[in-house]
Amino acid sequence: MRTGIPVEEARALVLDAARPLGAETVAAREALGRVLAERVVSSRTLPPADCSAMDGYALRAADLAGPTPIELRVVGEVAAGGQRESDVAPGEAVRIFTGAPVPPGADTVVRQEDTEAADGGVRILVAPEPGANVRDAGEDVRSGDVVLEPGARLGAPELGLLASLGRSVVAVHQRPRVAILSGGDELVEPDGDVSGGRIVASNAYSLAAQCREAGAEPFNLGIARDDPADLERLLRAGLQADLLVSSAGVSVGDHDHVRPVLEKLGCRLVFWGVLMKPGYPLAFGRFEGERGPLVFGLPGNPVSAMVTFEQFVRPVIRRMTGHRAPFRPRVDARLAEDLEKKAGRLHFVRVFLESGPDGTLEARTTGTQSSGVLRSMTLADGLLVFPAEATRLARGQTVSVQVLDPEFFAREDPLP
Ligand code: AMP
Ligand code: MG
Question: What are phi and psi of 230, to 5 degrees?
């Protein structure tokens, strides 16, 4: 087991242990946010035929060569879903509606707004370019096209595309099941009695939400007392999961039993202690032969638990779900204040991200960086990365910030 390792090394070790889970078939309508486990090849051409992009008249461009207005005979009508077999001959037009196939012979559609009714026909007032307002067959998708690759996240456009190809079921990666354990004699459920210094085991709630947001299915093992036998009983119930995440009890205190109990259950600890703040006391382990879950022993302090989850558990979940981009996006921002620390540990500083006077992004701390201040996480837009060996970041300097809101920007974090 390694101890006191850099963040980058810890990230490499956890990602190395994570594999995408197998595929399952789900209804496409239920697949929002899932990650594709198959290559989708189109068996259709869309649109299947040249069709009209407008309500108007289908005609031959050659008939529009002379000066406008031009009168044409209207010989029929075709609506979306309809068909017209006979050709449009010279001097003729067919009334057409958006989405309807352009009849044989015709090659151009004139918008209805550019026409007026004439005796037995239509008067073209404005002649468009040849081929105007016609959507070519296969302009969207051609039969045999690879439209989605494995690893693609299924969002709204992907689900629409699948539907248009007639796909009502789709193969996606399974979602990891994450067992969440809280440990500590002082902990109670949210509706419990908090007299006598007891506190709510809030980590079970923030961590479960982080799991969901990352694409996993959390389930709660409950609260273990600071007693090896109780801890063992609850941890055993989590051995069927893909991931086991416990918080608290991983330090070196007399009441910290998580490490020895995990080892007793056959878990091999890969590392303990990461050179970061918040969150030094972090354990990661795995079972031999890839039988049991990957195991994280996160620190108990609410902010430390959330920040270490962000750095290590979330990327593992994302990799298990088949995501190609396991990390949060990062942005450059200008630091709005001076920051100092000792060398040795990488600090993740909770910051607001705001637009500065000249429109550039500015990072400002949310205030105290105590790892007990959970409210700071509700305020933070991101985590500023204060590198391990740096001791000072000056106001005005460009800094790198992990964006916690996944929708904030779409740039992938290239670094640990
Ligand atoms: P420990 O790692 O057991 O020393 O816990 C560190 C701090 O985190 C203590 O103040 C605990 O009360 C607190 N803590 C532990 N577990 C939780 C939890 N599940 N939810 C909220 N706070 C916790
Ligand atoms: Mg404790």
Answer: -65, -40
CA-to-CA distance for 17 and 271, rounded, in angstroms?
Answer: 12
Residues 314 and 191 in one domain: yes
Instruction: Looking at the CA of 308, name the nearest ligand.
Output: 1
Q: Is 236 helix (H, G, I), strand (E, B) or coil?
A: helix
With tokens 């779900």, the residue in question is 321
What whole-number distance in Å separates Cα of residue 116 and Cα of residue 10? Answer: 73
Considering only CA atoms, which of 188, 250, 241 is closest in space to residue 218?
Answer: 241
Ligand 1 atom closest to the CA of 281, numbered from 1: 2
Asked if residue 402 has its Cβ within 6 Å of ligand 1, the reply is: no
Record the tokens describing residue 387, joined without a space: 């590198």
Residue 82 amino acid letter: G
Report the distance separating Cα 106 and Cα 328, nearest Å: 52
Amino acid at 346: L
Percentage of residues of the chain with pLDDT beyond 90: 87
190's tokens: 């949210």
Kindly state if the Cβ of 245 falls inside 6 Å of ligand 1: no
Q: Which helix (H) or strand (E) holds 160?
A: helix 156-164
pLDDT tens digits, residue range 77-133?
999 999 887 899 999 999 999 999 999 999 999 999 999 999 989 999 999 999 999
* Structural domain count, the chain: 4
Please report, for the domain that includes residue 392, its CATH number. Answer: 2.40.340.10
One-letter amino acid of 208: A
